[in-house]
Amino acid sequence: MEQPNLSYIDSLSGGDKDFKQKLIDIIKKEYPEEKDIYLTNIKKGNYKQAASNVHKLKHKISILGLEKSYDIAANYEANLLEDNTDLKQEFEAILNVITNYLQQL
Hints:
Elements: H1 7-13, H2 17-44, H3 47-63, H4 67-81, H5 88-104
Protein name: Hpt domain-containing protein
InterPro entries: HPT_dom_sf (IPR036641)
């Protein structure tokens, strides 16, 4: 599985370490909240709302340089809109990789 990285954040920050840290801090704050809301909606079978949660999480996936994972998330989002949970395991594995990565930053 591909691993998260800070390449995109590095390019956005243009070498400004304070700005880079602010971006990282925002992700570290927002990501767990968005993940928890997604997990709650999946557990309750609120697939349309979960699709909206996946949409938000896709942005974090993209920012962390996970191109293949972004494609999986996009397909999973579309599946959820059809009440289809195919790709759930793959998507949640991506979430776990991101969670572990952010805990190490």
